[in-house]
Specification:
Length: about 90
Amino acid sequence: MLKNKLAAIAVAVAIGLAPVAASAQRAPVPVPVGGSAGAGHVYGLIGCVLSIMIAATDKGNKYKKELTTDEALTCGLLYWIKEANKRR
């Protein structure tokens, strides 16, 4: 019984390590492709996230409320505009 299991394992390993298809062709060389996201996109995203966090922290400390969806979608800018208009 043990010999049968060892033989089955040996056959499975041999099949697993066997090459799938032999070919004398050259392996294709991957062509480097430039990404579409530059440094400006990354800094813009980080700036938007930080602006949302600062606006949410300010609103939470002043009014004990969360940002609305519209305020968050505008990267917190709508919250600051509303705050500026309240003080007039």
